[in-house]
Fold FERM domain-containing protein 3.
Amino acid sequence: MLRFRSPSIRSLDQEVLCMIRLLDDSEISCTIQKETKGQFLLDHVCNHYNLLEKDYFGIRYVDPEKQRHWLEPNKPVVKQMKSPLQPYTMCFRVKFYPHEPMKIKEELTRYLLYLQLKRDIYHGRLLCPFAEAAYLGACIVQAELGDYDPEEHPSDYIRDFKLFPKQSLKLERKIMEIHKNELRGQCAALAELNMLQRAHSLETYGVDPHPCKDFTGSTAFLGFTATGFVVFQGNKRIHLLKWGDVSKLKFEGKTFYVIGVQKEKKLVLTFHTSTPAACKHLWKCGVENQAFYKCAKSSQIKTVSSSNIFFKGSRFRYSGRVAKEVIEASSKIQREPPEVRRAQFGQSRSFTSLSHKNLIMNMEPLVPALPSTNEYEEAADPGVVAVKDPVLLSPFEPSAAAADKEQPSAERGNSSLINELQPHCVSLETSNLPPQTPKAEDGLEEDDKGSDALTISELEYSPCASMLPTPVEDSQGGVNQLFSSPVQSPARFLRELHADPDIQAQLEAERERERAYECTRLGARSGMSEVLSSSLHLLSSNERVNTWVLGIARFVAVLMGVLLITVPTLLLLLESDIDVSFLHEIRQTPEFEQFHYDYYCPLRRWILCKISMAMENLWSD
């Protein structure tokens, strides 16, 4: 176990345990700190494998809302996981599929890609016709079992390999035929190479399907390949937009937009996902794939905004190397090839003791990219696993012309690599690894450690409630205590005692007038006090009115602040000639140019016209 330490003593109490599942279903653990970034975990796994061509790979995880993500290398791991549950469970997977797998320099990298493609076949992501499925299955059997031996292998030995979601008896017989006759004498490395060579020509090679709905409400699956953006409905590819024709990818809420050019016409494809988080994940995957496969250098990668609205939306930038740089770096590797530790027969994921009665499947065109808690369930018997994988082995056929074009070129380009592998086939041996239990695939494999639901408190505390004054009740005196009775002076009291009857009569009349005046004044003041007390009671007791008033006040304050910032900034961009790099880049964006010519210029002309008309009328008068 690797321990990533810091000189700070306090940080030692903030360590987090991470469990990373590898492509062969083994696990490695790592202890990190809360500030550790995602690149450290990726480097840790690559060091475990002694892997140099690591730009094709990434680490995947599932958040508490069951949404999948790729671990970003430049952000802290803890902030990305968003879960208090430990240990963090992640998976090491192929993130960018090589456009030409034969250009991979090292056998170790090809073996890891082979493991990923084997998983894609098993879970229905790599769809293929019957003949291709039989050949790929035979390559897997040859790589893991070796040459066919009638003394060791029974007549139904292929049934021990669970290679496809729908594995018929006819398919198993075809696999055995190819394994016995066509692949004899091939070592594991050569069989894996033949599988990569055949698999990369399929339409769904490298496609991680994202379920969504198109503008008609029909279910579709979106994916990104080395060629471009693809859309599948059922098992049929209905759209292929090459990366050179894709001008922008953006999302707003649950809606994902692909803007491009096709046959010299502007094309806008609109899709709707189930959640905003799924839409953002789809957008990020598209931005990363477009940068990786399209750009010639990593210096050409730009920060992308998710929306065309000024100062709104998410901003994201792919931070790794691009495909051309990875191929150039691979060609410069000069070290001795590292040892490839392959799992023996019986330890591989392809082998299981299941009978056909224990394999339960639900047939659908493609497996969704969103995980489901019911995808796989472990039975009471540890040797029996019930699989619920919504996958169908595709019957569609790729175009014959494309297959004819790709096959000869691939064979010519790889003849030297095959010749290098052939002399070493006899001496290859597999190392002994501890037995491994088959685990659930990506949909749930990141999930089983964090299946407990997170609880968020439903109690809301409003600090504004304690800031209002407490009203005084009328029964306790209230405001009327201030105006209880008039005050008499001592001099007037003495005159009443000692004055004669005439003066006393005058004083009595004056006292009556003062009483009448005081009663009138008290009546007016009591009415005002009742209005004030009732209004205070309404504001403090009626929570809805209080919330509504505060909401309006906040909205007005935010609106004024936005206007004070936005209006001067827009005037600075639209009217000034200041040549700053930041302002220059904003002025050159297509969205800003569209706003300037379609909205601002007509509004400016209309305002100037009205002002000139008003001035002419003023001068004529």
Summary: Residues 1-12, 351-412, 426-499 have pLDDT under 50 and may be disordered. The first helix runs from residue 38 to 49.
